[in-house]
Structure formats: structure tokens, C-alpha cells
Amino acid sequence: MADRAQGIPIAREGLRFLLAMAVPAAVAGAAGWGKTALVFGVLGCGVGWFFRNPSRSIPRGDGLILASGDGRVVAVEEEFEPRFLKDRSLRISVFLNLFDVHINRMPCAGTVADVAWRPGRFHNAARPDATTHNEQNALMIETPARRKVLCVQIAGLLARRIVCWVRPGDAAVPGERFGLIQFGSRVDTYVPVESRVRVKVGERVRAGESILAELA
Questions:
Q1: 94-148 pLDDT tens trace
Q2: CB within 8 A of 141, min separation 6: which ones?
């Protein structure tokens, strides 16, 4: 899978929103409407900040599971995952607020075995029931050691669109960008129960840099 967002400071999906703010700001500025130009200019800066696409230093090592989103760890729980894994696993949930980077990154090396979108509600993504009730998109990744890692993008209260750039059969490269969620959301990562968890609830993590767990 080629990292389609590499080297681009703002995600492509944000360019139309940025243009929608920049054009009125320019027109208002040319017409001498200073306050109107300022309002659209500030909104444009906010849009650019939300869709920012920073580079990251990716840790290397066998069996590392990296954070797929920037944000705060809101849950580390063992539970039965009935849809894809059909087995007990550890779920590590990261909540992305409106000010976090919303680009999502691959948690581990392997192959994308399946991608499945499911419609749902738009509850606050920090709520526990967001895992089962909210709109979401799931990526099943099979590692070179044939372990299964599930990464689920979950829409939130303000999020109305989940973007995923990968398809089944694509290579999963640790830390590479695979999509984003607009605006405010959550990412759940499911790993085998015997994995060693490296984070705790309340800790802040960075996509592609922070290590969530290590496969046993």
C-alpha cells in the first residue's frame, strides 16, 4: 500500500473545506470588509489545523502494535469480539478530540485481510457503547506470524464521515497513513489476549509513534 498522504501537510479531504473558507476571505478582503475577512480567515486556519498531516518517527521492532490515532486512551479491556475475531481479545480504545490530529495510521505490519464499513449512530465516541452502536469502519490485519489485529475507526458526536484508503489485499506497513475521521472520533485496536499492553487509561498517545502493545 502506497502512503497516499505522505509529504502532504494537509489531508486532501480537507482541501475543499479550506477552499470554502479561503475564497470568501479573499473576496471580503478585496472588498474592504475586514471583519468578514478575519472571520473566514480564522475559520480557514481552524480547518487547516484539523486536517493537518504531520510526519512521525515510526518505531521499528517485531510484534509492535502502534497507536492508529492521536488522543487519550479511554479503555483497555479484555472482551469477546463477535464480528471479526470471534474470540476473546484485548481492546485498546483511543479517543480523538476536536483538536487532535485525525489522520489514522497502520498499527502493525501484515496484510489487510478485510475492510468492512457498518452504519450506526453518532454518540459521543468516548462513551463505552460507541464500540457497538456508532458508525464504524473495521480493518482486519493478518501479521506475518499469522496473528490477527483488528483496527476499528469509529465516528463520534461531530464526526459524519469515515475515510479509508485501503482495500483487502493491501500491504499493512507500520505507521503508514490509511485514512481519517471527520470531526472528533475514536479508534479501537484489538490484539490477542496474551499481548503485553504498554499503555494505561488516561495516557495520551500519538499515531504511528506510541506503542500500544507487543504481541507475545
A1: 999 888 998 999 999 999 999 999 887 776 666 777 777 788 999 999 999 999 9
A2: 106, 107, 108, 110, 111, 112, 113, 148, 149, 150, 151, 172
Question: In the sheet that 196-197 helps form, which strands lie side by side, from edge to edge?
Answer: 64-66, 211-214, 196-197
d(CA 12, CA 26): 21
Sheet of 87-96, strands arranged across: 171-172, 110-118, 136-142, 148-155, 185-192, 87-96, 71-81, 204-205
How many secondary structure helices (H) and strands (E) does the chain include? Answer: 3, 14
User: What would the grid cell of residue 153 be?
Assistant: 475507526
Say how far apart CA 33 and CA 25 lie, in whole Å.
Answer: 9
Strand, helix or coil at 30? helix
CA distance 108 to 139: 12
Any catalytic annotation for residue 185?
yes
Find where cell 490477527 sits. Answer: 148
Active-site pick, 89, 93, 185, 210: 185
64-214 homologous superfamily: Glucose Permease (Domain IIA) (2.70.70.10)
Break the chain into its structural domains and give their ranges. 12-50, 64-214
Task: Kindly report the pTM of this predicted structure.
Answer: 0.85
Residue 134 DSSP code: B
Torsion over CA: 155, 132, 189, 3 (sign)? negative
